[in-house]
Amino acid sequence: MKLLSVAIPSYNSSAYMRHCIETLMTGGDEVEILIVNDGSTKDNTAEIADEYAAKYPGQCVAVHKENGGHGDAVMHGLMNATGLYFKVVDSDDWVDEEALKKVLDFLRAHKDDGLDMLVANYVYEKEGAAHKHVVRFPKALPEGKIITWDEIGRFGYGQYMLMHTLIYRRQLLLDCGLTLPKKTFYVDNLYAYKPLTHVKTLAYLNVDLYRYFIGRDDQSVNEKVMISRIDQQIRVNKMMIAVTPLSKIENVKQRKYMRNFLEIVTCVSSILCVKSGTEENLAKKKQLWADIKAENPELYKILRRRPLGIALHLPGKAGRAIMIWGYSVAQKIFGFN
């Protein structure tokens, strides 16, 4: 059994996927690299996947499938993986080679200790940005040891354990019944949320492992693209609400973290509706909150009374202007989009 399986969802990725693969190959034979060709048609993504699988049969695996979107590619990677642990690295991103060695050292040392989830830092490799914003968790998570939710500290705004940060025990992903919808963007939020209900132990390494490239005009996280796909953002948002009633999560710190995660995702959905400037999307924002109230009245009350919930319901054009201004400030501070 490999120590770590890494799925690379790849769709028309020939321009940049080699760099992603090469950085992962520095992990050696302990790393299984699953290059998932998601029905690419415009370039030679499929050929590159086959090339690596043929040249490095003990390390690289080519998985070919009909186009089903990012989440479906992740699921095919998971279903074909054999490693003890599992990670996703998008084809336009890459990993830091020295950080990968430290991650593998830690996983190797603790492979028999029942670790459910390992967290590492990620870096916004934003196009044209002189300063690279790094998301770290030193105040929230003790470093270099296996802990339970009782031992976590305080997560600040902008400190969420997104897909980029996470390495799960593969069997946990299977046991939790993770399913990601086809033909839907932004399922990374669901991937970073649903398995948490099964995570009992976690660890944090303060290394800048994941290099998250951002800045291409066609990227799904480009703000204009996100607004054009607001229905998919809202769909994932609602799926997260429906996963597990927070009241059933016994650990207080775990429940608080998951609630705050839902809050920020709902904030993004709402503010994108507002920034679009259309009556249609403003109606979608209103409906989202109505659906949350219907699905989980207790959660609705909590989110609605918190500062973000209050800010997101400021009335009129002036209120919407304040929302947009606040979101712009957050963009500058945290470096996203």
3D structure, described in words:
By secondary structure, the protein is α/β, with parallel strands linked by helices. The chain folds into two domains: 211 residues, Alpha-Beta Complex (Spore Coat Polysaccharide Biosynthesis Protein SpsA, Chain A), CATH 3.90.550.10; 112 residues, no CATH class. 44% of the residues lie in helices and 18% in strands. The protein has 13 helices and ten strands. Strands 1, 2, 3, 4, 5, 6, 7, 8, 9 and 10 form a ten-stranded mixed sheet that branches. Helix 1 links the parallel strand 1 and strand 2. Helix 8 runs parallel beside helix 10 and helix 10 packs across helix 11. The mean pLDDT is 92.
Give the arrangement of secondary structure elements.
Layout: E1 4-10, H1 17-25, E2 31-38, H2 45-55, E3 60-65, H3 70-80, E4 85-88, E5 94-95, H4 97-109, E6 117-126, E7 134-135, E8 147-148, E9 166-169, H5 170-175, H6 188-191, E10 201-214, H7 223-228, H8 230-243, H9 252-276, H10 279-295, H11 297-305, H12 307-311, H13 316-334
Parallel strand pairs: 1-2, 1-4, 2-3, 6-10
Antiparallel strand pairs: 4-9, 5-10, 6-7, 6-9, 8-10
